[in-house]
Amino acid sequence: MPRFMYILLLFIFSPVAGNAQAARSLVMSVRSPQMVLNGEWDAPAVMMLGSDDRLLFSFDEMSHTYHRYLCRITHRNADWSMSDLLEIDYLDGFNNMPVEEWENSVNTTQLYTHYEYSIPNENVSLKLSGNYRLEILDGESPDETPVALFDFSVVEPRVAVRASVSGDTDRSLNDGEQQLSFVVDYSRFGIANPAADIKPVVYQNRRRDNAVIGVKPTYIRGGDAEYVHNEKLIFDAGNEYRRFELTDPNSPGMNVEEVVYYAPDYHALLYMDEVRRYHSEYRDEDGRYYVNTLEGYGSPIEADYVYVHFALDAPYRTGGDYYLMGDFTGVPFSPLCKLEYDAEEGYYFTSQLLKLGLYNYMYIWLPHGAEEGSVLLTEGACYNTENEYLIYIYHRAFGERYDRLVGVQALKYSLENN
Fold first, then answer.
1. Cβ atoms within 10 Å of 234's Cβ, excluding its own
2. Is residue 292 classed exposed, middle or buried when 0-12, 13-18 and 19+ CB atoms within 10 A define those classes?
3. Residue 118: beta bridge partners?
4. Topology alike, domains 18-155 and 160-237+384-417
5. Rounded CA gap, 66 and 68, in Å?
6. What residue ranges do the domains of the chain occupy?
7. H or E segment to which residue 194 belongs
């Protein structure tokens, strides 16, 4: 049986499920949830408290039938659990407001309605710093079932963060790892007990599974909390993200072998991916994706949806599973993104319904029973990989009921600045 047809038939009968991350869908009818800060598609979803920052939330519902959706905002702790605050503490205005901006798709084979909601707006603004979750609720269901979740943050800059990252770590020298070091200058904030009250959270390329939470300072001196020579801040460097681009369903783009119209949908077959052992010398977007189309005027309602078929040439392995990883998956370990093995042909595969655009992705291995995945088996470990690190500094003084976000620092490792 041809490779394309085999993948298609198995995808049709695959089970579907979901899980958690920064922007994720909870139902198959909702697709492409995204957050864009001040029109910058690649900026972290972090608003500055009391500023003119505007965060735009968007998603598609896969029909041309209008659905009434509501937005519920909740305040979260540093670990994204629910905080003890009441709505009146963190919201100025009203919660559970309807999503009033929507448009039907135009000239697309897959019909969908594009919805948008922004914060702040005339009905609601945020009063406190910290983590927030915006839930999109189905206003037409009896229990207002959530259909999508967006996690974002609000910062009140009170500390300065100085950071660096190096391939020379406390375990190895230029051997597939990167070590982060940073200093939190709290001298102008006056934190009484920095060792206990400061809560750093570090993300590599916005991944949640290998995030470092609550690491303690190595030294405290002169108004500085120093986080250096700490093995918890050593990360596998991995490799550059793989990429493909498809902006026109009638023309294969970068890393796309062919596009086939199999009524009533388009299907894009990517080139077979190989296991990598060496550093890939090209620029990536650190796991992000960007919706784009060459059709019409390139608006979000003109980009079609295509079934994209991924394949990884890797030997069969027991004791865990391979998954797709990237911002478009919503979570590293969604069952929808788990790869299946074709024993007859000897490769792993999965298929995803994706909107036209540019996508970054990797393959990640998750051992059974583990919570953190590894890219070492599929992508290799290259100390010179350009990775993005985000450092969030939270503070909760004795007696306070929530974690303030008092500092955020983003930095990118590259050989050019090391």
1. 16
2. middle
3. 56
4. yes
5. 7
6. 18-155, 160-237+384-417, 242-379
7. helix 194-197
